[in-house]
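Batch job 17 of 40 flagged for manual review because the log was empty.
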Amino acid sequence: MIAGATVLAGKGLEPLHDALVEFDGTTVSSVGPRPEQVERTHAASMTLIPGFIDAHVHIGLYEPADVLAGGVTTVRDLAWPVDVIGALVQLSRSNDFDGPTVIAAGPMLTAPGGYPTTATWAPPGTGLEVGGPDDAARAVASVVEGGFSIVKIALNPPAGPVLDAATLQAIVDAAHERGLKVTGHIYGLEQLEKALDARVDELAHMLMSDETIPDRTVRRMVDQNVAVVPTLSIFSGPSQRTAIANLHSFRKAGGRVIYGTDLGNEGPKPGIDAREIKAMSNAGMSGLDIVRAATVDSADWLGLTSVGAIAPGMDADLVLVEGDPLEDPTALTDVVGVWRRGIARAS
């Protein structure tokens, strides 16, 4: 049990001061005020939040234990060779796995010779080449058969050829027929419009080019219920300022934001990332907005029903931080305790 902390309780993330949270094995059994007969622990000056969900990582480039110790209890890997990431997804389902629970996209679907097939960070098999519309169903079927949870596509002209409109549309249609969303690594306004025409569901990064997204395009994104995983920490200098401004405009228009860092790229560190938190704050997101984007809203978007909130019956995926992240979002990176499915982990 954890006694005396302020708990961000339930799907509303309502602050419950001087609370008691109890576990029953791997799940939360009760959340409520601390009874007088239960002594406060050292958690009295701390806040207990749901374990963070990082919706964009390349977990093969870091030790899973380091990611978990930093406060991230669930990750979504967005491109890695099938055999390696598939095995890790299965391994992470064990309660005693020393790392976050892993869901994944498998390989990134791309044009022949397109990104990430020549990227230095990507092992062979990270990209799956799709030769044309007739090849789309096969590619999507391979994602489904691998047990993966989303289809990722690449539209990155500076790094090589890109999927044409017909092939992209065929991929999206095949994915939607299989009940899967499509997320996109998208560079440039032209490719963004192509993705929106095809009804891509999500941007795996804020727009990768240093371009301001026009208001009409932002409105279209919101109207089409496109979610954005900003990964602001991979940008720097003027490019980051542009990405932050685009995120601010998207949120102001009512857009859905899901926390993600692109762990494995330059910038993000394992766990709850300080640069990402700061950049999201600079985009106008409050501490509560950021926590929601990494917990309740992320779980809802990703279709995860047992994580994302501290409530009876939910997995005991919990993070204890020093201070009050609702007042000061930087407190989210001061992690002093982590539990995954009720088991305390090193932090």
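Reviewer: the log was empty due to a logging misconfiguration, but the result itself is present. The chain has a mean pLDDT of 96. Unflagging and moving on to job 18.
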